[in-house]
Structure formats: structure tokens, C-alpha cells
Fold these 3 entries.
Entry 1:
Amino acid sequence: MQQVKSGDTVKVHYHGRLTDGTTFDSSAGREPLQFEVGSGMVIPGFDNGVMGMVVGDKKTINIPVTEAYGPKNPEMIVAFPVTEFPEDMDLEVGMRLNMTNSEGHVIPVVVTEIGEENVMLDANHPLAGEDLVFDIELVEIGAAPSRIIMP
């Protein structure tokens, strides 16, 4: 039976949860997730977790923070002046907003604290700092995609 190796295109169904059991994502009711193993399309722990599986295999993988979205970066938490928000905006802790940086890139942030003068915004990935658990089922292994090598 063919086992998953780096470069294969695979399809998996998955259920992702935090170590406390809270679900953060699932492919239930959707098409399976398709990705090229080893290409960086998914977090390293997920990539490593499917290696060696055969179609029909089901397993649970525990992914430490270092192989997931990394630790929370304190430099990604910024104080933003309250005066820079629209006056009619009802800010709430946990609110998700999008900011634009000087190059025009959109950066998703979460309001973590609201003070008299500043609002604390966290631009870390929502799963940064978390160990993750995935239940995965390998649905399909495809051939490695064709590549054109230039001389």
C-alpha cells in the first residue's frame, strides 16, 4: 500500500481542537483538505503527522506550539490610541478588526484590552501559543504534482 511521503498531494478529513477539547476547526460537512506534503501549505506538525499514513488510516496527532503557530510574540501586541477609532464604534474585548499597515497590507487583530487612552490590539495568529490536537483521516494520496525545471 502506498504511504504518504513528502511531495505527495493528499486529501484528509480533520477535526482540530485545543488541548482542553475546544474545537477550532473541522472539515465535517465540507470537502477534505487537500495539500502538498512538505510544501509549507500547512503547519509543520500537521505535515509530519500525515507522513507514512495509508488511505483509510485514522489517527490523532498532538502538535506542540513549536510545530503549530509558534509562541505568542509580544511585539505583535500593540497599543493603539482610542482617538484613532471612529467615535461611533462600540469597541469590545474579543472584537476582531482589520488594520492596514503603511504598505497597504491588511492585518487582522483582536481587541484584548480597552483603556482610557489606548486599546490593546493583538496581531498574533489566533492559535499562537497553543498546543493543538488533530483527529485526521487520510482520504486520498495523489501523485506529486508535475514540475517544470528550468536549466
Note: Strands lie at 9-18, 23-26, 33-36, 58-63, 77-81, 96-100, 106-114, 118-122, 132-142.
Entry 2:
Amino acid sequence: MRIAIASDHAAVDLKAELREYLIELGHEVADLGPETADRVDYPDYGYKLASVVADGTVERAVALCGSGIGISIAVNRHPALRCALVSEPLSAALAREHNDANAIAMGARLTGIDMAKACLDAFLSTEFGGGRHAGRVDKLSHPQIAELTQESAA
């Protein structure tokens, strides 16, 4: 699988470890930076990550910052992205199964390497469940569908 990974300065070490782990698992990894712990702005890397998922360059993405919150917000600004902030494997699996998440975010200050690997494993091995979830997921990228549904129900 083609996977992009990006972080801010607070998560550069976790990013490096997860990049190597993904490569060991046989994935093709695009490291979008940064390469050093010099201060950077997480939105810049979140937007960059979102663009390569949206244009099909990669299939999935991993976003990292100190808490995972800021970069997940940045990634989710793109309508084609569904980035879930996860802290354990169950939330990572449910993000895929129920929400067809194409990206996950984690906080380097909150999530240790073993837990981060377990989250990655769950995220990458879980398929989207489809069914009743499909229409809901479609509304995430197309808010006008939700508006039409609400209007017809009124």
C-alpha cells in the first residue's frame, strides 16, 4: 500500500520510527516531512498530507503532531479526507470500518511507539464495512447531500 506520513516538529521522532515500521511491513512510504525537530507549523504538513491522498498519489495517510489534534483538524479541512484522531487500536479499526477513514492522526506526546504501531496495524488491516455506513460517509465529503436529506424530512 502507498502511505504518506507527515508531522510537525513535536512528532518528528515518532514519524521516523513509524516510517521505518511501515517500510518493514512492505508498504511504500512517502515521508512529507519535516526532517528535523526545528519548529514548523502543523497546518502546512496537514494540508500537504491531505493533498496527496486527495489526488490519489497515496491510498492512506498518517498525521502526527504533539497531541494529534491540530494536524487532524488541518487534514480534515480537505473535503476528500476523513482523518480520525486515534489513541488505541479499537478507535483506529472503527475509523476504517464505520467511517472509511483514509487518514489517522496520533499525538506523539500522548501515544507511545508500541501503541502507535498497534493503531497503524488496526487502521491498515481493517476494511470499510459499507452498508449502512456508506451513505453517511458520502455525506462527509458532500454536505449538500445532508442538507437535501434534512429538507426532504421536514
Note: The two ends are 44 Å apart (CA to CA).
Entry 3:
Amino acid sequence: MQRERMLGFGALCALSLLVAAGIASAQAQGAPPAPPDTNAGLQRQVTLTPAQQLQETDTYLARMESARSVVRRLLEEARAQRDVVKTLCLNDKLNQIDVTLRSARERRQSLDLAVKRDDADLSSHEFTILGVLRQRVEQLTAEANQCIGKDADILGETSTVTQIDPGIPDDPAFYPPPIIVQEPPPSASVIK
């Protein structure tokens, strides 16, 4: 038993020496560890001129306004049908779209100022953010289209059918007589 422990301890020591040697050799080569990717795939080179970015932003805003109108119409229909669940869902999505649209309008103004100052870096930055906001509105519109309402619309009307087996006797003579207990309950006191 002790010999097995010694072998296990020896293997653990050898493994830790190998790991330490690997770290030491990596540090000796001067290769610093690579920093984690913080862009998460969001970095994209913008090839439009600032003026073209401004025109494209106007297209984005028009699409976003159109999407808002669609969700607003769906909300009005849900209210007319008095569908509380769907109304709450659509109202939430519409509020999120309104906030995103307000932010997009502010970014549009910032982009306009950057174009007037001829600041290509800032205009590219604002245009990228506007693209993300446009995608957010598209996502919210898709979620609004998935808002469900009354369960009956999905499941359909339900009905219950009862069938009684004719072979079962339904004669009151076969019922057992009721048992009436007339014994008083036991006393809770030790003194009688």
C-alpha cells in the first residue's frame, strides 16, 4: 500500500516538473501569452466613405421606423382582441424598439457631426454602432412576431367526453351501508 502511494507521489512530482519545464521554456523563448479576443467577432472593416455611411444610416433609420410601425400595428390588434398576454409581450418589444430607435437617432446626429468635421474614424465608429442598433431592432421585430396570445389559439378548443361502461352495475342496493362511529374521542387529560 505504501509502495503504491510512493509511486503515485513520484508520478505527480514528475508531472509537475514537466509542466514547470514547459512554462519555463515558453518564457525563455520570450513569447508572451496572447491577450484574449475582446472583439467577439464584432470588428468589421467599413469601406464606405463618411457621406455614404450617412446615406446608409438614413436607410437603416427608415427600416427601423417601418419595423416599429409593424410592431405598433400588432400591438393595436392584440389590444382590440383583448389578449392580455400578447399585449404585454408586444408592448415590451415596442418599448425596447423605441429605446433603440432613440439611441440610433442620437448616433445619427453624432455621425452627421463627424462627417462635417471630416473625422473618418469617428464616423466609422458611429456607423458600426448604428449597424448594431439596426440588428437589435431586427431581432426585436422577430421576437415580436413570436409573441403568443391565448392558449386556445394554439391548442384549439378542448372538450371532455365521458363514457360509462354499461357493464358496471349502478344499483344502490350494491352500495355498502354508511358506517357511523358514535364513540366519543379519547380524553386528552390524564385525570378522568
Note: The CA atoms of residues 150 and 156 lie 10 Å apart.
